[in-house]
Specification:
By secondary structure, the protein is of the alpha+beta class. The chain is built from three helices and eight strands, in the order H-H-E-E-E-E-H-E-E-E-E. It has helices spanning 2-17, 39-43, 95-113, and strands spanning 48-51, 58-67, 70-79, 82-90, 117-120, 123-130, 133-140, 147-152. The chain has an eight-stranded antiparallel sheet with strand order 1-2-3-4-8-7-6-5, covered by helices on one side. The longest helix has 19 residues, at 95-113. It is globular, with a radius of gyration of 21 Å.
Length: 165
């Protein structure tokens, strides 16, 4: 009997050591860290340049599309060859329908990523964190749209000071 318990425990420990970290967040197949040129593969719509070559080579590309069965516009921030941030802005509606769309999106994200951290004052903000990323769903009470933003936590490298000789 002890042998069976020991074998079961060793199998559990073995399974735990190979457990996969949480699935990375994505919007419309896109996620921070992807190559800029991959946007065209997932957009399925004409791309529009909102800003090109801003500070630090930052640019914003937009396209119309669907996110979790709701239509709106995607805005993809890139720096050089890399996607840094994604934003989905739902289409504008009356406040009742916008609230229903927000609740539908919130429920869909709950199923995909679990229970978020919630904040509600005048704004309703739901935040999911995992795998070095943050996904934020937000709207304003009585608002006409909602937004869904995806960013990666990045650490900026600091130039190393040369030591005096």
């Amino acid at each position: 009997m002890r042998l069976i318990g020991l074998i079961a425990l060793s199998l559990l420990v073995t399974d735990a050591s190979f457990a996969q970290p949480g699935k990375p967040f994505e919007l419309h197949g896109l996620r921070p860290g992807m190559l800029t040129r991959e946007i065209i593969l997932y957009s399925h719509a004409p791309l529009d340049t909102i800003l090109w070559g801003g500070g630090d080579g930052a640019s914003i590309i937009s396209f119309k599309g669907e996110c979790l069965h709701d239509s709106g516009e995607f805005r993809v921030s890139v720096e050089g060859p890399e996607v840094t941030q994604l934003l989905f802005v739902s289409k504008q509606r009356d406040s009742t329908h916008a609230q229903m769309a927000f609740n539908h999106t919130s429920a869909a994200l709950d199923k995909l990523y679990g229970t978020p951290e919630k904040y509600h004052n005048v704004y309703r903000i739901m935040t999911w964190e995992g795998a070095g990323q943050q996904l934020k769903l937000s709207t304003k009470d009585g608002g006409l749209f909602y937004s869904l933003g995806l960013t990666a936590r990045r650490t900026r490298s600091v130039p190393r000071q040369d030591s005096p000789k």
